[in-house]
Amino acid sequence: MRVAHRNRSLVSSTLHFHSLSPCSLQFPRTLTLTVGRRTAGKDVRRLSMADGENVSTAAPAENGSAMDPTISTDEDEKFGFKRAEMYQSTLSGTVAPYDRHVFLCYKSPDAWLPRVEASEDDPLPKLLDSALKARKGDISNKTRLTICEACEGNEGDVLIFPEMIKCKSLKGSDVDGFVDDVLVNGNPWASGVQEALTGSYVFVCAHTSRDKRCGVCGPVLIDRLKEGIESRGLKDQLFVKACSHVGGHKYAGNLIIFSPDSLGKTVGHWYGYVTPDDVPEILDQHIGEGKIIERLWRGQMGVAAEEDKRTGEQPVPNAEISSKSDKYEERNTEVNKDNKGACCQGVTGFSCCKDESLEVRKEKKLNEKTEVCGKKGLGKLSSWIGSLEQGDVLAACAVVGAVGTVAVAYSLYKRSG
């Protein structure tokens, strides 16, 4: 029996039963231990031990964190919530971009090998992982596979986000058909049972054989989350599961929350450096109010890492991220607003400033022509000619020349007569 939190301490004693503990005591008589409060969702009970059985002593860890009786205080500070690396790294942008998350319900965290998806001893995870890699080029959505704990009766179930579907009791012989139907073609699973998922899901990394930090932090967070869910009456709406390696063990405790946004779309948000003290905020602020807890936020499914860094200050976890094109359009809108006051067509949003500048250049050229004509003594006529287009000037010159020619010819004709 493990005391996970200070508020769940034993009333009559702080003794823990652990047969393999190096710090054990021999009791000559039967010992009866009364647990005065509810611990980790279990009913109050009386425990008794026969003569000669071992009882290990361990005090509750501080700040709500738990310490296994086999782990020393030094190890707790190295792997638990008090380790020196906590809060030393920037979290935002530490999630590699991906579009879909597939969870295979398989055994328990204690049974998972370090590389459970590649283990010869675990054929189902390996078959599914191999099939996903083989069909990678055919799957349009970048898909991530993670193992999660199986509860009684759901061994082999596959949970898929953001599609929010569950494919029940996957077997090794069904893997290729499942991948082809559901993940490649986006169709219902032809040879199996498929149903919709409802509610929100929290997956907590507790892969102890892969990294001891998650093995220490994960179970404590799961206990605290389940307590908070029960106290808030959310047992039928919010579900918590232990999961295998998700990346970034140095950020333990790590958890992923899949919940619907204001539009009903399921979004997956990653959190790191989560401690038991953060659990009420996770439940009330993120899940209850739909707001990101910025200091713990690592990123989200469906968004590139670069955009994750810009999204860290979103007031809500599923707020729309402005793209470069959106910002470009905003800048153009501001420019158009400035132009509307000075443009002849501004009220319609159309700017004629470019055309207007062409007219100004034409007018300048004509004025230059007028000045030149004035210097030559052409006076008003020259100014008038200068204001005409080049074609008009040439036509006028031709007419004047023709009239002059006729006049000269007529004068010569009169003289010869």
What does this structure look like?
- There is one protein chain.
- This protein has 417 residues and is α+β, with helices and mostly antiparallel strands.
- The chain contains ten helices and 15 strands.
- Strand 6, helix 2 (123-134) and strand 7 form a beta-alpha-beta unit.
- The strands form four sheets. A five-stranded mixed beta sheet has the order 7-6-8-9-10, with helices on one face. Strands 12-11-13-14-15 form a five-stranded mixed beta sheet.
- Residues 1-71, 312-362 and 372-385 have low confidence and may be disordered.
SSE layout and pairing:
Blueprint: E1 15-16, E2 24-26, E3 31-34, E4 46-49, E5 54-57, H1 73-79, E6 100-105, H2 123-134, E7 143-148, E8 158-161, E9 165-168, H3 175-184, E10 193-196, E11 200-205, H4 212-231, E12 238-243, E13 255-260, E14 266-271, H5 279-289, E15 297-300, H6 305-311, H7 324-340, H8 353-375, H9 379-386, H10 390-416
Parallel strand pairs: 6-7, 11-12
Antiparallel strand pairs: 1-5, 2-5, 3-4, 6-8, 8-9, 9-10, 11-13, 13-14, 14-15
Q: Portion of residues in helices?
A: 25-40%
- Please mark out the parts with pLDDT under 50 across 5 or more consecutive residues, or reply none: 1-71, 312-362, 372-385
Distance between the termini: 143 Å
**Class derived from helix and strand content:** alpha+beta
Query: What's the alpha carbon Rg, rounded to whole Å?
Result: 39 Å
